Amino acid sequence: MIYLVTGGSGFIGSHLIEQLLRNGHSVINIDNFDDFYSYQIKIKNTLESIGKNSDFKFTNKEDDIQRLISLSHSDHYTLYYQDIRDKKGLENVFKNHSIDMVIHLAALAGVRPSIERPLEYEEVNVRGSMNLWELCKEFNINKFICASSSSVYGNNEKTPFSETDNVDNPISPYAATKKCGEILGHVYHNLYSIDMIQLRFFTVYGPRQRPDLAIHKFTKLIYEGSEIPFYGDGDTARDYTYIDDIIDGIIKSIIYLENNSGVYEIINLGESQVITLTEMVATIEKVLQMTAIKKNLPMQPGDVTKTNADITKAKDLISYKPDTDFQNGIKKFVEWFLRKRH
């Protein structure tokens, strides 16, 4: 099979591509190496995902990405330096390949930055997704997996969060764009028979996690002896999901889509284990054997108080079975973090 993966040089995307290649498939990776965080991290992700841990010499962004494209190209892997907002550029990719399925992970992420740059989030997350659906329509590609987010639940009072819950009350532009993606995805499913699964990811962590996300940021700051920003009273809680379990869920969604037609499904992918901010910091402290220096701060606008996935549907529909508890996941993450430091 030939899979087009958007955002394939990012955290989740690079792990997915690594697994798809390992399973004997061909992959087209579209990534714009956005400056949201260092492009150098994404280059390292890309090389690791294709099994080329070469000693890459960084010079400047444009030259480095062009070298990466040449270095990474093979019969089973092609990288495009491409923004999903550019429909013409995307069209060339679709013309050059016979694509069996699109797995759309690319997005502008982050709740707090979306409050500062809402229009840009709409351009990437809504218009960018529509560009892909338009091209799927034009090129008769009728299998599509899309990354949604647990943030669509907002401050849902009922726990655990179920796919049948009302999600009409997002509390950040990022969450609203993800909800829009689910609605517009259904439109393209209904009008053009594009089989689709929308996966609501619950706070993914693990090796290659983005440096701005809490677990990575806190681990780094605690290790360096710096203050960590500690928002609220520590009772905010997340359903943290280890990257291997997320990849397992995506692969099983791919298999389900390939074997079924007339599909439009929204599926939670979480661990179904809720960890408070206080517990999260304590777990990192224990694994690092260091004590955090906390800088107490008020709750941030747009942050939800709790996430908790009901994964009954995922278990029943795609045989999803997460098996990495938080303590083991943090241990694996810290081992990766320390290995990268030395």
From TrEMBL:
<feature type="domain" description="NAD(P)-binding">
    <location>
        <begin position="4"/>
        <end position="332"/>
    </location>
</feature>
<dbReference type="Pfam" id="PF16363">
    <property type="entry name" value="GDP_Man_Dehyd"/>
</dbReference>
<dbReference type="InterPro" id="IPR036291">
    <property type="entry name" value="NAD(P)-bd_dom_sf"/>
</dbReference>
<dbReference type="InterPro" id="IPR016040">
    <property type="entry name" value="NAD(P)-bd_dom"/>
</dbReference>
<protein>
    <submittedName>
        <fullName>Epimerase</fullName>
    </submittedName>
</protein>
<keyword id="KW-0520">NAD</keyword>
